[in-house]
Amino acid sequence: MSNAHILVCDDETGIRESLKLILERDYQLSYARNGKEVVTLLKDKKNQPDLLIMDIKMPHLNGMDTLRQLRRIRPHLKVLIITGYESCDVAADAIRLGASDYLTKPFDRDTVKEKVQALLW
């Protein structure tokens, strides 16, 4: 098991559970339901994940606005954006705002593992 810590943020319970099933054997996981929770967690010096996996469309604070805030709090945190929107514009905007990579829903186990491993190592 890796010592890497991944924070998973998605407002959909099913997506959080899917990512848990894919990643729990290899990584330490914690969860948030929206961008506001992510910002609060990352302001706490005790909660310092190596990677954030985050949805774009969420209530309270969407993924793009969360990315903007994260760059001030944790400028070097690697972020894997997941979204149901298969759009080059969304991907380009997310990367411009500091996302490390981009994944569209529905995703498969192997693709998630490959992208996570590439970002962490």
General description of the model:
By secondary structure, the protein is α/β, with parallel strands linked by helices. The protein has a single domain, classed as Response regulator (Rossmann fold, 3-Layer(aba) Sandwich). Helix content is 43%, strand content 21%. It has five helices and five strands; from the N terminus they run βαβαβαβαβα. It has a five-stranded parallel sheet with strand order 2-1-3-4-5, sandwiched between helices. Helix 1 links the parallel strand 1 and strand 2. Helix 2 packs parallel to helix 3. The protein is globular and about 30 Å long.
In short:
Helices cover 43% and strands 21% of the residues. The chain is α/β, with parallel strands linked by helices.
